[in-house]
Amino acid sequence: MSCSFHFKLFGVYFYVSRVRLKRRRETERTSVRKQMKRLRWVLYREQDGCCGLCGKQFGMDVMEIHHKEPVSVRPELMLKKSNLVLLCPNCHCGVHRGERKVIDD
To answer: How is residue 50 annotated by DSSP?
Structure first.
């Protein structure tokens, strides 16, 4: 049976297990997640909780972030608000299947 726990102190995560104490700084991935979470909130307020395509209102936990320019093509635009739009799950799937298209403003 493994006895372990973790905690964060001054931006450093510490993992304590029976074997040894490990530490890990916040990774770039964690930082990107935090920034995307903030951008989701900003976009939700700007769009008044409405889908960018169908215009129906949804809760923030349901909305999905869509990149107008794919991250694989333009990675530098990954966190640019002008490249993001919040969509409901149905519209987001439709965009990726090619059934719908996001029009740039």
So the answer is: B
Collect all residues with Cβ–Cβ distance below 8 Å to 65 and sequence separation of at least 6: 36, 39, 40, 43, 84, 85, 86, 87
Residue 102 pLDDT exceeds 90: no
Which strands sit side by side in the sheet containing 21-25, from one edge to the other?
5-9, 12-16, 21-25
Question: How large is the C-alpha radius of gyration of the chain?
Answer: 19
Per the CB < 8 A criterion, the answer to whether 88 and 61 are in contact is: no
Residues in Cβ contact with 59 at an 8 Å cutoff, skipping those fewer than 6 apart: 49
Please report where in the chains the tokens 């905690």 appear, as a residue.
7
pTM for this predicted structure: 0.69
Burial per residue of 29-67, b for 16 or more beta-carbon CB atoms within 10 angstroms, e otherwise: eeeeeeeeeebbeebbeebeebbbbeeeebeeeebbbbb
Tens-place pLDDT, residues 23-70: 555 566 668 888 999 999 999 999 999 999 999 999 999 999 999 999
21: tokens are 């104490």
